[in-house]
TrEMBL record:
Protein name: Octanoyltransferase
Keywords: Acyltransferase, Transferase
Active-site feature positions: 229 (acyl-thioester intermediate)
Residue(s) at site: Lowers pKa of active site Cys: 194
Originating organism: Aspergillus brasiliensis (strain CBS 101740 / IMI 381727 / IBT 21946)
UniProt similarity note: Belongs to the LipB family.
GO terms, molecular function: lipoyl(octanoyl) transferase activity
Amino acid sequence: MRLAHLHLPDITSFTRVANLQQTLTSRLLSHKKHLTPNPPDPTIITFTPNPVYTTGRRDLPPSNTSISDGNNTLLSLPPSLEPIRQILKPPQPTNTTYDPQSRIAEYHPTLRGGQTTYHGPGQLVAYTILDLRRLGLTPRCHIRLLENSVIDVLREYGVRGMVTEDPGVWVHAGRKHGQRQGGGGGSGGELPKKITAVGVHLRRHISSYGIGLNVTEEPMWWFRQIVACGLEGRETTSLQGLGVEGVTVEEVAGKFVDKFVGRVNGDFACGEGATGEGIEEVYRVEEEDLLKE
C-alpha cells in the first residue's frame, strides 16, 4: 500500500482543507460502493489553519446555518461558544489571509467526534483519510493509533506523552525539556495538561479528521477562551511550553507521518494475528495532484 502525504506549508483556510478532505472521503466511499478496482491511496493532510473553533457531534449548535438579522448575520452557536460570540465569524472563503494581530476566529461545526476545540497558528493539524478495514483497524484501534503516533513524536523531543480516561494526549504539568519525568500525577500532584486533541469521523469505516498537536504557545490564548473538549479546569500546553524551542510545524508533521507509518506496520500489518496491509511507501503530493485524479 502507498500513503499520500499532502503538507500545506502556509497558514491556510480551514474551509479549503475541509473541502479537500470531503473530496478524498467521497472517492473512498465511491470505491466501496461500486467495488471499482485499485482503491484510492490513503492520504494524510498536514496543515495549520487560520484561527478556528470547531465543534464535534457532541457539541453541535441548534442549527448549522447562520441567521440574518437585518444587516447582520448571527451565527448559530452551541452554548459552549456563546460567551465568546464577539470574537467569532462564519466560515470564510478559501482565499482568506491570516492577520496575526486579529483576535477574531472562524467557527465551523463538524461531524467529528468530541466537543469544542481550537485550531490555528502554532499548531499541527493532521487529518487521516483512509479505509480502516484495509489497514486492519477497529474504530478503537484507530484512535489509539493516532494517540500512540503522537506519543512517539513527543518522545523524539524528550517529552513523555500519555493517555488518560479523557480523550487526547496529555503531559505532566511543569515538564521541561531535558528534565526527567516521573509517573503518577506529575510534580506536586498537578493535573496533566493536554497537548493534542483527537477527534475523528467514520462512515462505512472511512475515516476523516484526526489530531491537533500544539507546537508553539500561540494557541494558548485561544484555548483560554473556551472549555476545551468540555473538560472544565483542564489546561492545554505545547512543545514550546514544555521547553522545546525552535521546532517548526513542518518538522513535526514529517515526524507524525513517519511515526504513523511505523505504528501501522508494526502493530497492524506485522506479527501474529495482524490483518492489515502494510504501508510500503509514503509519497508527497500537491493539492492539484489530488484534485485532478
